[in-house]
Amino acid sequence: MAADLSRYDDWLAWLRTRAAADPDVLVVWVGGSAATGGWDEHSDLDLEVLCAPGAVGSVYDRWLAAARSDFALVDVWELPVATWPDGRQAFLHLGADPGALAAPTRIIDLHLSDLSDAHRHVDVRRHGTPIVLHDPDGLVVLRHDDEAALRAAVAETVDQVRQRQSTAEWLVARALRRGHLAEATALHVRFGLTPLVQLLRIRHCPWRHDFGLRYLHDDLPGDLAEQVEALLPGPDLEARSRACFTWIRELLDEQLPDRQVDDVD
After folding, report:
1. Smallest Cα–Cα separation from 218: which of 207, 205, 230, 206?
2. Half-sphere exposure of 10 toward its Cβ, with a 13 Å CA cutoff?
3. What is the DSSP letter of 118?
4. Is 54 within 8 Å of 131 (Cβ atoms)?
5. Are 194 and 201 in contact (CB under 8 A)?
């Protein structure tokens, strides 16, 4: 079922008009949960804007200025310039106190990039099918990412988990033995849960192996997401940590299959 974007109709109309009038704007599409699934009343609107090479900074400045002028923005979070080497990103809030979830969310995640093959080629397994708002030259191409590069990234991830797991388990255990609960909690999530999920993703959806702890219920089959969530930090963190690292060792011992990643629907 297509996502109901109607609460963003004013923004969608604004985007189409701005894009058509700006020669430096080549492509605009909606991504995120509207494209991948899971869209609900508290989803933000993820926007990808591709600009003429070298123009992303000036487009970002004038689009943000226009948004401030045309909408009653309650809040704006601009990510540092260094966040993206060839782009800019900001979160624009159209409603107050979104964290209260008292009303449907109205937040725009506006991400602009210079046009490149890396940005215009979209792997739908990772990002879903984009909802294209502006693409007069047909620049958006739906295709799978390079398999060799993906295989290399997966192999490096597995190798790092394998090398690190003994040190990682010691770090968590030491923090717990010292009574440093905050440190142990952070280390458990970083070096226990996160690599565990990486290994599970490599088995079940390798093209999203780097998505962290998000979308677990979408990406992992059966009750695996619930099993992972049972290892989230809790009052029995020592036992949860042991179980987490035991599971990691089991996955490593099973020798994760060298899957083809471009032949899975």
Report:
1. 205
2. 9
3. H
4. no
5. no
Answer whether 6's CB lies under 8 Å from 106's CB.
Answer: no
- Token pair listed for 149: 């590069």
HSE-up of residue 215 (Cα within 13 Å, Cβ side): 22
Angle, helix 194-204 to helix 147-177, in steps of 10 degrees: 150
- Tens digit of each residue's pLDDT (9 = 90 or more) over 134-160: 999 999 999 999 999 999 999 999 999
Crossing angle (nearest 10°) for helices 9-21 and 56-70: 140
Collect all residues with Cβ–Cβ distance below 8 Å to 249 and sequence separation of at least 6: 165
Which amino acid is located at 252 in the chain?
L
Cβ partners under 8 Å of residue 92, min gap 6: 64, 67, 71, 73, 75, 76, 107, 108, 110
Angle at the Cα of 231 from the Cα atoms of 230 and 237, rounded to 5 degrees: 125
The single residue listed with the structure tokens 């770090």 is: 171
Cα radius of gyration rounded to whole Å, the chain: 21
Query: What's the rounded Cα separation, in Å, for the pair 174 and 180?
Result: 9
* Confidence tier at 1 by pLDDT (50, 70, 90): confident
If residue 89 lies in a helix (H) or strand (E), which one and from where to where?
Answer: strand 87-93
Task: Count CB-CB contacts under 10 A for residue 26.
Answer: 23
- pLDDT tens, residue by residue, 33-79: 999 988 999 999 999 999 999 999 999 999 999 999 999 999 999 99
Region for residue 54 given its phi and psi (left: phi exceeds 0; alpha: psi -120 to 50; beta: otherwise): left
